[in-house]
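Review form for a predicted model. The reviewer records the input and the model, then writes brief findings.
Reviewer: anonymous (R2)
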Amino acid sequence: MKNTEKLFELSKSDAILVVSEKNRFYFTEFASTFGYLALFPDGKSVFVTDPRYFEMAQGLIDEGVEVRQISNGSNAIEVLINLFNERSVKTIGFEDTEMTVAEYGNIKEQLADFELEPVGTHINFVRSFKSEQEISYIKKAQSITDKAFSAILSYIKVGVSERDIAIELEYQMSKFGSGGIAFDTIVASGANASKPHAHPSEKLIETGDAVVMDFGARYNGYCSDMTRTVFVGEPSEELRRIYNVVLLAQNTGINNAYTNMGGKELDTSCREIIKANGYGEYFTHSTGHSLGIDIHEAPYASMRSQDILQAKQLITCEPGIYVPNVGGVRIEDMLLFEEDGVIDLTMSDKNIIIL
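Model under review:
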């Protein structure tokens, strides 16, 4: 069970009600499609679930989490109300960042006797700092992703479709130990490579194509994320130049990264290289984002970011250039910020690869 001291320091609530599947998993490492987790300032927690998960959830008791079962047809909210009354709770924090309007309306109606305080941004802030265990999961996920990239190179050739490459990448990640994909795999070739988030299509690889692959594995619920661009046959002079500019921009960003820098500063260090080489208008997204249970988490590295990149936080560094009717290039690594420096967790080669 993760330490919630910082969360209650930020929220000042008497209790926090965790309803979303991903945040229940974050605090308990117990995966379930149903359940309510009540957190309290004294470090004690209660997990309320139904018979489908009750027996499996008994393992949470060893982590100091009380487990309460609701019977079929009974109302979990009634169990929670009794629990909150037992503890003289007056203010309950809720996940405003995870709820629909309808879900909030339902919670507000059923917990009408309590004051509700939005704490979603506080939860996201706490989640942005990774424990050593979380870091180990992310490193393992990235190791799987690196291995899959190495394996896919022999598969990519003229006549293979984008869709088949995506399927093979996902198979390779599974074979190397992935518990699932971190997000929908992106494979874009030729003119499609100018679309940053293109969906893999039936387009066949042609000689001279750039092939952009953006993919990631999951390990124990945690994501990895990397992008590599390779060429099938000799690229055009312009595509080779674009590749070299993107690689220079990314290397500049990574080499100049330091703990407690601004996310905007990291974005600028990459963006200025691309702009100076005449492609500024073709770098159309932000430089990076963090990740963990979600593939996109705070902090961010963008032109508007106010985030400070602190120790035990991660950020991707993924500049790109996308020229319509020509193609595109993106290169992405994951960076871990530590007190004594910045570590690149991505091991795959970034020098130009021509297959």
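Findings: DSSP finds ten helices and 20 strands in the chain.
Further findings: The chain has a mean pLDDT of 96.
Recommendation: see findings above.
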